[in-house]
Amino acid sequence: MTFISEILQPVRESIQRYPDRNAFFIQNVSYTYSQFARRISAIRTVIRSAKADEPVWGLSIQDNLNTYASIFALWMEGKCYVPLHPAWPVDRIEDIKRQVGCSNVLDNCDVPYHGDLLDDWKDCSENDLAYILFTSGSTGVPKGVQLTRSNIAAFMDSFWKTGIRIDENDRCMQVFDLTFDVSVQSYLVALTRGACCYTVPYGQVKYLHAAGLIQEQRITFGAMAPSMLTYLRPYFDELDASSMKACILTAEACPVDLMESWFNCAKNTDIYDFYGPTEATIYCTYYKLTRGGNNLSLNGIISIGKPMANVQAMIIDDAGNSIPENSGASNKGELCIAGAQVTPGYWNNPEKNATSFFEKDGTIYYHTGDLCYWDKSGNIMYSGRIDQQAKIQGFRVELGEIEYHARNFYNKQKRVMAIAFQNDSNLTEIALFVESAQTDTADLIAYLRSKMPGYMIPTRIIFMQEFPLNKSEKVDRNALKQQL
Fold it and tell me: What three-state secondary structure class fits 360?
């Protein structure tokens, strides 16, 4: 299980076996594996001509063939890439470049092809970095998550052991920004199996374009955020998703009622809930849903399942003690992750590393910050973020429970989000955001009072036509909080 055996070799085999088959469908244009190979070779020539020993290169990401070819050209040259989005503020891009000491940036310019360069790869350590993804930091300074070649190799090995099968006849959808790690799964799964990767253009209304791809291009596999499906839900009766054989829902908590509706639309589809922080290389646990019900859920949210093959999971209590598996809902704690998929740490950030990782019995674990418990069946139940708990009048409140009852009031047809905030007296209150036109709230409050104690009832209810999303397609809680 190496980076070459799990990624580079399979992609080269796809190129050799299927030169005339499509590797990409980008902005309504198809590109064959042969064209993809020529782009990789041309870009490798540019990298070599730079004669730069720097291991980390910036990559200006676009929705085009050159961007994807640049990733593989850098990997074949033993380099690590850092995605830089052209829409980001210049100061953010310059700060990231400064942090990693990166002076070389591939900018997607077309360069001439001088011959095939696919057979020789630079000899690298499995501990060398493959990519660094910068995520928002609580201090306002982006923090870089380092993923090694061995991390990605372990992920791919784990992924195939979930039972999902892809071959050269599949049409795989890639809807995520290349600054978000699920994009890596989306293109690797396709290219390592000779399939075609269908991308959603930047700047488009993603859910509408994705719906068009699913129906018109007969997509067979794809990963999406539940938020995208929520926007598609009003069109489920019209959408023909019968071509899909497998679908992953990821990036945020997955409502069970949404999945049951999606089953009715995607009639031939195996649906999976995959969970994982960037620090554990894309995904680290998964749960395969059962068509027809009987799916494990908590407060209307699907279980995140069991650890993937190259991951160890532990749930710890407030004292740092491991909670036994199968111990049930009364024993909640923080989910911690270890194994071959876990990052070696944040780039040049010893303070963050010291608080995010710990050693137990000789194994390094990552603090996910997620509140979970072991179900009696050995599956992990997600209860929310630890930092999204609130203490009100001395009681610990889980915001997910408030959201659950509010969704039920709206017959699970509207999205809701509970946010804790400090009032003018520095006391904690709860605001409930509802994705809807303004309506009277008396019946909602009465319903919530019939389900929860008084200290859990939201003191503010705010209606919004559409929730803001971040670059990862998740509801942007920080943007909501700024409305308070």
Answer: strand
